[in-house]
Amino acid sequence: MANPDPEFDYSKRSQWLRAAVLGANDGLVSTASLMMGVGAVKTDIKTMILTGFAGLVAGACSMAIGEFVSVYSQLEIELAQLRRNSGRDGEGPEGGSGDEKEEEKLPNPLRAASASALAFSVGAIVPLLGASFIKDYKVRLGAVAACASVALVVFGLLGAVLGKAPLVRSCLRVLLGGWLAMAITFGLTKLIGSSAL
């Protein structure tokens, strides 16, 4: 059996996967909490679905823009360092294989932004799908909470495997954090909505 490529950086792949799991978890928790919050004061399905969809789009755009700005700043810093190291001022590599390899390792802002938006959207679509076909108000709220809970356990499991952390503790941490976010959003919105009416 052929040995794996010794130059392949498995730690980088792990970092990207962990970032994707965190982005999906963020999309799941924020969208589910938003839908639960609106569901605390509005019983119609259209309002809940539109709110969740708006949260998906806004969150994905926000994540993509934030990731692009952050990674682009990192890229500029690393490019400036490469130029200082190579002794050239603002010029690209001229056939130097070492420089070419270094430039291949540089972060890609567009790829990072796309991955971040996609990961957020994957997580955010879970509670949307859970609520889309249920007309009964209470059952719909339960479906959103149940779908979000199952997905939280899955994301916690993936994060634990990638981060080599204890499985049960990681899953519980993610699950309880998601439940807390949904409960706080639901409770505060119910309180403010009731007092405002």
Automatic annotation (TrEMBL):
It catalyses: Fe(2+)(in) = Fe(2+)(out). InterPro entries: Ccc1_fam. The keyword Transport applies. It is found in: Vacuole membrane. GO terms for biological process: intracellular manganese ion homeostasis. Its main location: membrane. Keywords: Ion transport, Iron, Iron transport, Membrane, Transmembrane, Transmembrane helix, Transport, Vacuole. GO terms for molecular function: iron ion sequestering activity; iron ion transmembrane transporter activity; manganese ion transmembrane transporter activity. The chain crosses the membrane at residues 20-41, 48-72, 112-134, 141-162, 174-193. One of its GO terms (cellular component) is vacuolar membrane. Residues 85-106 are annotated as: Disordered. The keyword Ion transport applies. It comes from the Eukaryota. It is a multi-pass membrane protein. Pfam families: VIT1 (PF01988). Belongs to the CCC1 family. Vacuolar Fe(2+) uptake transporter. This is Vacuolar iron transporter.
